[in-house]
Amino acid sequence: MADITDIQNEFIRQEIEEYIERADEREKIIALYSKTSPDMQDIAAAIIDGQHETSDELTKTGLDAGISALQIMDDGLITGMAIVGIKFRENFIFVPEVLACARAMKAGMKHIEPILSASGIEPVGKVIMGTVKGDLHDIGKNLCIMMLRGSGFEVIDLGVDTSADDFIEAVEEHGANIVGMSALLTTTMPNMGRTIEAFIDADLRDDVKVMVGGAPVTPEFADDMGADAYGANAVECVDIAKRLSGVTT
Amino acid sequence: MEKIKPAEYEQRLNKLGEIFSNIARHADHQALMRCPYKNRHNECTAQFGCRFQKKPQGDGELLLCTSDDKLDYRNAWEAGAEDYERMRENLRGQSRAGSGQTAGPGNIKHAAAEAPSLVGKTIFDFADELQVRVPTSCGRTGFCHECIVEIKRGHMALNERTEAEGFLGSDYRLACQAVVTDAAQDVEFALLRRNPRILLPDDSTTDQLDPLVTRQGDQVLYRDSDGDQPLDQYRGQMYGLAIDLGTTTVVLELVDLETGRSLYVASFENPQRFGGSDVMNRISYDAGPYAGEMHRSIINTLNTEIQQMCAVLEIERHVIYEIVVAGNSTMRELFFNLDVQSIGQKPYKSLVEHEYLAGKRGSTALLEFARKLRIRANKNARIWGAPLIASHVGGDIVADLVAIDAASHDELMMLIDVGTNTEVVLGTKDHLVTASCPAGPAFEGGLVTYGMPGCDGAIESIWRAGDGFDYRTIGDVPPSGICGSGLIQLMAELRRHEMMTPKGVFANKAREFLLVPDRKISISRQDASHLAQAKAASYCGQVILMRYLGVQPQDIQHLYLAGGFANYVQTEDAIEIGFMAPVHDDRIVKVGNAAARGARQMLVSRSTRDRIAQLISTIEHVELETTSDFFEIFVEGCQFKPMDLEKLGW
After folding, report:
1. Nearest-by-Cβ selection for B39 from A94, A137, A238
2. Within a 10 A sphere around the Cβ of A10, how many other Cβ atoms?
3. CATH topology assigned to domain B107-191
4. Contacts A137 to B, Cβ<8 Å
5. pLDDT beyond 90 at B488
């Protein structure tokens, strides 16, 4: 049976000692990590620590040294996220930290995407995401983006306070097929409808599917404003994006 | 370059998908209890302002979150981008203050206290140093406009007025914005003692007179459940105090218990304002490191007022034998130094109410020795807290019901007590229903940029005239803001002149309308949106209760409008914007500070207390939030237009 001392990276050992409390889970994680090389453990550590520059650099170094993309995903990125997920579940870290970790993972994935592309694997779909004009609330949207990227979508994040023009420009520039809008305030929710109207005015409405979400939004509102779909949370967001891009029905 | 097989890639995606799905589900669950923008170090990562944000001690980049996670954190979020920028800049500015400077030789003075001046520090910083309590609810960012101070001298030693201070007259500054730029000069500042205009109870002596404090020969007695208890030797007078303990304003009335005559009325701002302007903020404050401060502040202020009253009337405090307090659940429990945290969480009931419902006490009324609460009165004086109805609907509404004599109403009546929390009671004496609507402080001067309580300088009435506006202020002095009645009229005027749509959108895409150009007083769309939400709370209360009883506005025979500014509201304006049910004018009775009157009536009459206790035991409490279509009704209520019950489908 694998032992924690089989893991060479000290940071990872400490993380496991400190945060993984369930015996069966700890055993599984130790078994997982004990099979990985120190280089891969460094990548996992960067992800657990939310260091996107480090994970960016280390992934590139790894690929240049001839390590396969799949192995980096398995031994570095996914193993890293596995510990992040447990720490979050046990309330050792919170959403802002998880998002930092997801960003670090994305920094690594960035180097793997060209390889996927060269292998003929294209993103499931291209999604433009943004919080609508006048609204600065972004955490729900950011969770959706994390989920979408983790499910093979390419996501262009327009951030908060996004005007209709910004959405339109992004769709034209990136040729995206899905637009996701978020609003948290009852006062900014109408801006979703206005953005959709702007798409109609720009003669782009037929080119994209629109999905909406956020605390005050309901399926009825979504329907009223002319959106194609409504998602109550980040998990639903992925299901909907898959449906809208025709991956599932 | 290596080739990846789609199936192999998909396998990895599935693994990731599983990890992420669990994360997203947990995030959803956690968001019910903890603000998702708060990181593991309790720092705030939000890009917008929030009342829980506080500047860090050191040079940290991120603001600290002071939320205790017990309340709905969303209420504390500020919406606008500009507010946030302003907040950040101010906080940054503050954390730089005072580094590498030497103090003096000038001093910063407040009353008799002083501290050496220092370039870069705010008047607020000095207030802290001098232990002067300045009200604020925005984390010292210039947003809430509560920390107004008068600069008695030394204007030149301070920075230029910031944009946030445009609304203030020349001698006033916001303590959080006034920064020392020249430490060589003295600066003297004073707190603004606001004297809100409130309604004085009428001087009728027709109240039922059978007080609990009685006299037998030279013995003063107090009748409690065990019979007559000796209080004191008769000193020539027997007085009682009635207190209407509002979230914003406190009214105090001294009554002669032998004649029922009112001798003295005083009102003052509730000093607990430094802990936030509404009850939820104060509950949250009381859970923090300064728990108990709320209780101390109200007791201290009350003692000061009693002292002053005794000096004016030339009486000694020992002749005050009973004190009756009528306040909403939170105000009352803070006054009695009870834990208020349960009021901030579902089902929003005080511990006293929980005990009552569990059969552990016979009534929700409270009885205590005044001295136990450190209140300066006769050493045996009792203090009686008027009972609660349910949840947030407290003793102030009980006092209202006493004042309007609800126990004799055979015909359908509705009571609307407008305040930071608006309460509605509807029905007849045989069946009353009530609801509490968290309206927030918008109509009492909070959240609205140029909103203010009804004190001198507040615009109480405003109307369109030519291309601009004409107005009237309280005290006929130059305006410094708009109070509740002015705001209601303003919304109605904007609608009448089609300057604003029912949804609160300004004509010609204007972001704001300038109301008083020379004082830079304006109304913004954001203000309108805050007012819409405050108005919607009162709308929901009325609409949901009417539906609950299956009645229409025209069925209401008596509509009582109570609350600090109720008497100044033009009813047609209030109906025009849907603030109030459309009831014919001759059925509307403005009862102003009914709670103060009711508190007095309870003070002087045991049978009145018994009668109201009987009535409130039958009142049914309707929880608005659990009404299944609450949100639809709320959204409808956010519109500035008359109530249209048909649209809601009944």
Report:
1. A94
2. 10
3. Ubiquitin-like (UB roll) (3.10.20)
4. 46, 48, 77
5. yes
